[in-house]
């Protein structure tokens, strides 16, 4: 089985990708998180907890801040947006060229050891408004990395066709530690429930009919949803 | 004319690329230098001097160190190597995935303004032992950047077919401030004259028949070479 590093933000997507990699018996040598000036650095604590849960070595790489995004300090994080009619406009929370920067550093790190695979939680839902989460970008990046390094890197992207509900279903099926994840763009004690990321997450759990186990700062209508059972309860 | 940023290391190659861009009347909005843990951070002072010479705004971006190279602290810089029979082996001074990291940050920076072009000193001589300096890598990176950002970036690489002697000839023809450049991999007061970079530089000047105007720590045989005349003397 291939040796891999996982880009683990601590969000539901990358945690589900890690659960997938382990279920596929990929050898996950390490989990990498990145600080790049994001407000929600709290997600890194979530990544650490998830890596510990799976007993995967975890490392946080502190990079130079990536400026020019709502996520990294330019203006407020949008809250309460109507996401029912999203078009393909690039989101105000797009971080300029973030994914190529993170992938590039992950590969520089991989070159210190034997890893040939990078695993990440890129998915169909994010692809809509984040060009650097789309399949053509990831395919081009994979080719570029091979040329840059002379190592046959593979970017494994198991969720690339999934919407958020599909990811929740997969996370549950794989027994991923959903209760340890962090999705909210704000770095509060509880998830805000109203930023784009929270809205999409809540909507996905409701679509699946399961109550999201993480605490929210606002009341969420979970009527018709079943309680979530942590993997260790199953 | 397009708006551009130049990746300016302060070495002869990138300085010649800057001289080329200005001669082509490309609007150079800024020059970017990068700290990534290299021993020869002295080159950044050279980049600053060259940018000031051309009155181009200069900025140094301090990135997370890129580990795993002789250039960034792992082992000694090779000196006195026999470079007469170089094959295509990756050099011990290769910095893992450096160029994709630098290009990715340069693009993140470009997205804060109107620049659509990145200019750099990638060339045929470096391409031999540095896979991330080769034409296929740069073409793939260009395509990847366009997909990541939805901006039609161009990576201008005017020296890509040049060997080091051709670059010296071009630098002289363009009146580039060669005396301000820094090439040596070591960060000393004077260029060491014996590391791979110094050897290639000295060999190129000798091939062209001109005395390199920068000071060397060792005696160089310049017999048969004419004195270099600084641009302001011409």
The overall pLDDT average of chain A reads 92
CATH superfamily of chain A: HUPs
Terminal residue distance of chain A? 28 Å
**Order of adjacent strands in the largest pleated sheet of chain A:** 3-2-1-4-5
Largest sheet of chain A: 5 strands, parallel
Can you lay out the helices and strands and say which pair or pack?
2 copies of one chain form a homodimer.
Chain A: E1 3-7, H1 12-23, E2 27-35, H2 42-54, E3 58-62, H3 98-110, E4 117-119, H4 124-127, H5 135-149, E5 154-156, H6 164-173, H7 196-208
Parallel strand pairs in A: 1-2, 1-4, 2-3, 4-5
Helix pairs in contact in A: 1-6, 6-7
Describe this structure in words.
Two copies of one chain form a homodimer. Chain A has 234 residues and is α/β, with parallel strands linked by helices. Chain A has one domain: HUPs (Rossmann fold, 3-Layer(aba) Sandwich). Chain A has seven helices and five strands. A five-stranded parallel β-sheet of chain A has the order 3-2-1-4-5, with helices on both faces. In chain A, helix 1 (12-23) packs across helix 6 and helix 6 (164-173) packs across helix 7. The longest helix of chain A has 15 residues, at 135-149. Chain A is globular. Chain A starts with a strand and ends in a 26-residue tail after the last helix. The relative contact order of chain A is 0.17.
